Amino acid sequence: MKVIAMIPARYSASRFPGKLMKDLGGKTVILRTYEAALNTNLFDEVYVVTDSDIIKENISNANGNVIMSKKEHECGSDRIAEAVEFLDADIVINVQGDEPFIDKVSLSKLVEVFKNDAKKEIDLASLKVQITNKEDIENPNNVKVITDVNNLAIYFSRSVIPFHRDKEVDVKYYKHKGVYAFRKQALLDFYKTPMTPLEASEKIEAIRYQEIGKKIKMLETSVEAVGIDTPEDLEKAKKYLNL
């Protein structure tokens, strides 16, 4: 089973333009992420997928693997699918380009899902983290996920799910972390399918996989990523690097 990591890397970002090329302890954010993915030793190959000549040059100068995205894409899955269509791979892991401090334990658990799936029933694996703060639960920027008894995703939403009608029942809420492991075919099926109605409504790409019948295994993690979405996050990352 050949496992590769793909790091989608757009130069433009609405909240923090050019964030992947910002300096983080003498290296760019995207280069630190690429090297961190390599250093996990979980992957047969690691690639950065980008629409930016600047990012391409940065990775190439460090002798890294980089693929130029040929088209504009709505989401990370589309960008990765275009890149892997003609690559030799069984399992593809999506590593976030703005999270240079990779959680190796969680990524290894995602890989294990497929190693243990002898019947090849699981199409994707992804991560969830429990949230308890009322603001986090009600924040539409936090995608919530509910699962069945086998931890297969039932639905993802920006709304509060489940609705806590019976206050005597203990309810747990989970936020979806956008780290995916895909069977290559599931990724290609997604890419060849136009945006689906519920996905368009919620603006959550995971829903398209569900709408076309793919099974998503959810794994719980307690690790919150050190992501870089704002200049303030970059300063926190610099301090974290020096710990």
Write the layout of secondary structure elements.
Elements: E1 3-9, E2 23-24, E3 27-28, H1 29-39, E4 45-50, H2 53-61, E5 66-68, H3 76-84, E6 91-94, H4 104-115, E7 124-131, H5 134-138, E8 144-147, E9 153-157, E10 173-183, H6 184-191, H7 197-202, H8 205-211, E11 216-220, H9 231-241
Parallel strand pairs: 1-4, 1-6, 4-5, 7-11
Antiparallel strand pairs: 2-3, 6-10, 7-10, 8-9
Question: What descriptors fit this protein?
Answer:
243 residues, alpha/beta, seven-stranded mixed sheet, 9 helices, 11 strands
Structure write-up:
The chain has helices at 29-39, 53-61, 76-84, 104-115, 134-138, 184-191, 197-202, 205-211, 231-241, and strands at 3-9, 23-24, 27-28, 45-50, 66-68, 91-94, 124-131, 144-147, 153-157, 173-183, 216-220. The longest helix is centred in the middle third of the chain and has 12 residues, at 104-115. The radius of gyration is 18 Å and the shape is globular. Helix 3 (76-84) packs across helix 6. Strands 5-4-1-6-10-7-11 form a 7-stranded mixed sheet, with helices on both faces. Strands 2-3 form a two-stranded antiparallel sheet. The chain is built from 9 helices and 11 strands. The protein is α/β, with parallel strands linked by helices.
